[in-house]
Amino acid sequence: MEGILPLMKPKGMTSHDCVFRLRKILRMKRIGHTGTLDPDVTGVLPICIGRATKVAEYITDAGKSYEGEVTIGYTTTTEDASGEVVDRKTVSETITREQILAVLTKLTGTIEQTPPMFSAVKINGKRLYEYARQGIEVERPTRKVNIYEIELLDERTVFSGDQISFRFRVTCSKGTYIRTLAVMIGEALGYPAHMSELIRTSSSSYTLNDCLTFEEIEKHVEEGTFQEVLKPLESGLEHLPKYKINDKVAEKVKNGAVLNTPHELVHIEGPIVIESEENKALAIYIHHPSKADMMKPAKVLSITNE
């Protein structure tokens, strides 16, 4: 059994919880997720099964889209609705649509974020949430992330009330904390804020329409049709550049050979999928770090190398 399962992650479960439950349902261990989703977040979580676990990191590195709600008026320890309130300020003025749109424009592009204390980022071998649960505040490195697009999903022209909530859609790079983005939106408007709701609508090439619930998965397992609903390993690599080779070169690739870099690949940065004439992914290559005009395998995917 192998392939990629776009899971509809339910609320209240961690990504690891989802993997643990699938291992019990499928009765196999070789299962991995493609990046942490907080328990409060629902939506698209691609799960790699069998040999497809080899491409998990490439799906994790791909872009993601979310739809969420930001609430302005108070912030929490976790920056989402599950945390304890740590700062509250009544919204005493009317906020216009133009003000919000200006903030969203300002936060589009490359921005800097500081990971929240309640996150899985490791500092000195320990995850931040472990420090947070002990009441220990540690210095966290600021990092750059890319916000490709933010769209306001609210038709109002003015926003008023002691607290203000509005929905938004964001497409972003790996490593972006949407709850931190919600806090940043509030700060730019002059108020504490938090992310009150979030759903991941896409991850790599997978969307909500592709996803199966746990109940649907169990039904397919019972009926013996589960393999039929899995996406092929190649679907997790759709966002990467491809290079097709003939069968003679394919044998070298299956054995992990270092190859001359074709002229058309010289200027491509990052991983390249080497595929057969039948469009099957054989390996993922990268430019050789010390040999000019050569490329080496980062990951051999061929089943003959199992």
Automatic annotation (TrEMBL):
Its EC number is 5.4.99.25. It is an enzyme of class 5 (isomerase). Residues 23-178 form the Pseudouridine synthase II N-terminal domain. Signal peptide: none annotated. InterPro entries: PsdUridine_synth_cat_dom_sf, PsdUridine_synth_N, tRNA_psdUridine_synth_TruB, TruB_C. PANTHER family: PSEUDOURIDYLATE SYNTHASE TRUB1 (PTHR13767:SF2), TRNA-PSEUDOURIDINE SYNTHASE (PTHR13767). Keywords: Isomerase, tRNA processing. NCBIfam families: TruB. Responsible for synthesis of pseudouridine from uracil-55 in the psi GC loop of transfer RNAs. It comes from Cytobacillus purgationiresistens. Belongs to the pseudouridine synthase TruB family. Type 1 subfamily. The keyword Isomerase applies. Residues 179-237 form the tRNA pseudouridylate synthase B C-terminal domain. This is tRNA pseudouridine synthase B. The gene is truB. It catalyses: uridine(55) in tRNA = pseudouridine(55) in tRNA. The active site is at 38 (nucleophile).
